[in-house]
Specification:
The complex is a heterodimer of chains A (216) and B (245).
Chain A lengths: L1 H45 L3 H16 L2 H11 L6 H26 L3 H9 L4 H31 L11 H12 L2 H32 L2
Chain B lengths: L1 E10 L2 E11 L4 E5 L6 H8 L7 E6 L2 E4 L7 H8 L2 E4 L11 H13 L3 H14 L15 H13 L5 E5 L7 H16 L3 E5 L3 H7 L2 E6 L2 E6 L1 H6 L4 H10 L1
Parallel strand pairs in B: 3-8, 3-9, 6-7, 7-8
Antiparallel strand pairs in B: 1-2, 1-4, 4-5, 9-10
The chains are: A mainly alpha (216), B alpha/beta (245).
């Protein structure tokens, strides 16, 4: 079996690397845009406006309560057919990740001591000024490591997008499996590739986290 | 002049302030003493509307800033708070900013003071409290006493007419209490209106024009330091003072 695994890697590595590239790109796009959406949703949830708060809470609850695979299918079918499969998968993943990132950001902001907002307001700063100058810079330290972990999660979750054969790492397995009939071995090969990607990223996040602690 | 009239405040089912009324004249130094949980700090936060009272009214320099009829806009509230400095028990210095930026942030942001002027003013204040050499350090390198001195001059940089101190020495190591009290004494000597919530009875006796004793959300007794400390009338005041003096 080990020989088969090695053979698959040797024979299909261009396909596997291309798949890894697409997986990495999809993850990166998801995390970047997911962070933007997450930021907006988090600020909506923390605002005093009941309508904005309600919309944001509803969004987070629904997204977290529905399986990602279903979200992918619903969005893929709901979008016009001119939208490419990759873009459709990306949109679904961004909407999904945004909800989780929103909760990370909200937690990070709420973890900043209330006294900081009190002090800023007592000096006559507006809520917005206090948020931008005092609260958010401190919240970033709580948020960044968790966002990194979200990136790791997203890498794994993009595998569900292979439902649409978008050429990602999981899609490569489907080709390899069909061509070689070595299903177990091909699954193990992509598992190794996923693990290599997530493990490397986790380690990088660890380094970043320690750097942030040093500057504390 | 600050006037609080029949201020009530509850947190959930816990009524923290019950019809608290107090008039503070310009230039007056008022100490508020009392057991923990008596509503002293909440009352102080109601004076600059960091906490909104549930009912009652607050006026500042003859202008009503809070009542059942008057709701100021956020912008007006921000402008009002610029005139009242506040110092907190846990310092609440901004850890993401250097010492000098802690001081200049609000003057630059809210008063549109030029950066040069704000820095010049900040150095004058740093000199008064002996922190000039810490100007470009971050607060994490400061001792508790230094942090509190920074918090005081951060408030003074806004040139407020009134200063509120919320247990300014309660979180300090004993050997740092004196240096902070010295700075507060300086503030008192500048002739500002000052309200101090404190457990430092000797300090309250020394600097105050008037002492207020609060218990269970009410003002139980008020008078000159002599009246309150040497000749208290109410049993609860006597009981409290017998425990702390």
């Amino acid at each position: 079996m080990i020989n088969n695994v090695i053979d698959i890697i040797i024979e299909y590595y261009p396909l596997l690397l291309k798949g890894l590239g697409i997986t990495a790109l999809l993850s990166l796009v998801t995390v970047l845009f997911g962070a933007v959406i997450g930021m907006i949703i988090a600020l909506m949830r923390l605002s005093n406006n009941k309508l904005l708060k309600g919309i944001a809470s509803f969004y987070v609850e629904v997204i977290r309560g529905v399986p990602l695979l279903l979200q992918l299918l619903i969005i893929y079918i709901a979008l016009p057919s001119s939208v490419s499969k990759f873009v459709a998968a990306a949109i679904a993943l961004i909407i999904n990740s945004g909800a989780y990132v929103a909760e990370i950001i909200r937690g990070g902001i709420q973890a900043v001591d209330n006294g900081q907002m009190d002090a800023a307001r007592s000096l006559g700063l507006s809520k917005k000024q206090a948020m931008i100058k005092i609260i958010l810079p401190q919240a970033v330290k709580n948020i960044l490591p968790a966002i990194g972990n979200e990136y790791v999660t997203v890498i794994k979750e993009t595998s569900l997008a292979s439902t649409f054969y978008i050429g990602d790492l999981m899609t490569s397995q489907k080709y390899i499996g069909t061509e070689t009939y070595l299903y177990l071995e091909s699954y193990i090969v992509v598992a190794i590739f996923y693990f290599a990607a997530t493990f490397t990223l986790s380690k990088l996040i660890g380094v970043l986290e320690r750097r942030l602690k040093v500057s504390d | 002049m600050i006037k609080a009239y029949n201020v009530c405040k509850s947190f959930g089912s816990n009524q923290v302030l019950r019809d608290v009324s107090l008039e503070i004249k310009n230039g007056e130094v008022v100490s508020i003493i009392g057991p923990s949980g008596s509503g002293k700090s909440t009352f102080l936060k109601c004076l600059n509307l960091l906490e909104n009272p549930d009912s009652g009214s607050i006026s500042f320099m003859g202008e009503t800033i809070f009542s059942s009829e008057v709701k100021l806009k956020e912008k007006q509230l921000d402008e009002f708070r610029q005139k009242i400095g506040m110092v907190f028990q846990h310092f609440n210095v901004f850890p993401n900013l250097t010492v000098i930026d802690n001081i200049t942030l609000a003057p630059i942001q809210t008063k549109k003071m030029s950066k040069e002027d704000a820095i010049k003013k900040a150095y004058e204040l740093l000199d008064i409290v002996g922190l000039t050499d810490k100007a470009s350090s971050y607060p994490r390198t400061l001792s508790g006493g230094q942090k509190q001195r920074l918090a005081i001059i951060r408030a003074l940089a806004m040139e407020p007419t009134t200063m509120l101190f919320d247990e300014p020495t309660s979180a300090l190591d004993p050997e740092m209490v004196k240096e902070v009290l010295e700075v507060i004494k300086n503030v008192v000597n500048m002739g500002m209106t000052v309200v101090i919530v404190t457990h430092e009875m000797n300090f309250a006796r020394e600097v105050s024009d008037r002492v207020i004793f609060m218990d269970e959300g009410k003002i139980v007794e008020k008078g000159t330091p002599l009246q309150i400390f040497d000749n208290p009338q109410m049993d609860r005041t006597k009981l409290f003072l017998s425990k702390v003096l």
